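Hypothesis: this fold can be encoded by more than one sequence.
Test: take the structure tokens below, design a sequence, compare later.
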């Protein structure tokens, strides 16, 4: 299941240039088919004209994996705290202490970055004004293909905002699967509710549009994204404090898009090149 970002678009020339190799290697591919609006049932092309919706192939994380190739990246290493001072920063990761580091760059959601960054970081005001929305994602394996006339649908509903047929994307298994996102408002309003209650309510709402069998409903799973979408961005491409030698970037700086995350990081990288002296 692609239960995170559903697709992305390319609008900026710098992002397009960065993805040339990924396109040539078919790490990303256009997502074709019909995009519906429900409940009226109007259909349009997912990709065509001025808009092409891309997906990673064979999964959405394929692009990140390709970009990370050859880099030393530690996963499953949650940072619990930051300590130290400019030029001598330390990270608490479980029972170990990593560092010292000259600079720290955070690419976490704004609320998490705000909790981790020390008080001396000069851009806490920008972090505080940023607002992100939650999203609940329901994943359903269908025992029979419902033969839906669309690959994805935007839904005008108080609970359900998006439905996609995951198997309609390139290089996915043929098994019919649905990915269903709740609306941002409903997700925010029910963020702390028990997941089973959320799952049940979303299934009930979904069945206004798609028949779901009891066995499919029983096996459906739910995921809570606490920081999924950007409601109010920081309004600047990145946050950089060259005195404390701390910085932060992310889609939340600009807009809730994959492209925005890239552009934020690229702009911060350019700024750091002007400040940080890198040994040859």
């Amino acid at each position: 299941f692609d239960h995170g970002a559903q697709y992305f678009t390319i609008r900026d020339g710098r992002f397009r240039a960065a993805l040339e190799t990924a396109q040539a290697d078919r790490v990303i591919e256009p997502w074709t088919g019909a995009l519906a609006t429900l409940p009226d049932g109007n259909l349009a092309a997912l990709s065509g004209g001025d808009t092409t919706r891309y997906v990673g192939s064979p999964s959405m994380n394929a692009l990140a994996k390709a970009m990370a190739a050859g880099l030393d990246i530690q996963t499953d290493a949650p940072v619990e705290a930051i300590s130290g001072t400019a030029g001598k920063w330390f990270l608490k990761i479980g029972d170990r202490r990593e560092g010292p580091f000259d600079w720290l760059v955070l690419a976490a959601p704004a609320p998490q970055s705000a909790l981790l960054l020390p008080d001396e970081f000069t851009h806490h005001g920008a972090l505080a004004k940023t607002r992100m929305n939650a999203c609940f994602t329901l994943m359903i394996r269908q025992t029979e293909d419902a033969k839906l006339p669309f690959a994805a649908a935007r839904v005008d509903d108080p609970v359900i905002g998006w439905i996609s047929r995951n198997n309609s994307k390139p290089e996915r298994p043929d098994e019919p699967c649905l990915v269903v996102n709740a609306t941002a408002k409903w997700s925010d309003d029910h963020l702390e509710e028990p997941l089973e209650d959320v799952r049940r309510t979303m299934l009930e709402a979904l069945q206004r549009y798609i028949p779901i069998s009891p066995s499919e409903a029983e096996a459906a799973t739910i995921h809570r994204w606490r920081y999924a979408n950007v409601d109010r961005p920081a309004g600047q491409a990145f946050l950089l404090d060259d005195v404390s030698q701390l910085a932060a970037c992310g889609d939340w700086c600009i807009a809730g898009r994959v492209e925005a995350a890239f552009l934020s990081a690229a702009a911060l990288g350019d700024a750091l090149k002007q400040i940080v002296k890198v040994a040859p």
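The mean pLDDT is 96. The domain at 78-130+233-275 is CATH 3.50.50.60 (FAD/NAD(P)-binding domain).
Hypothesis status: open.
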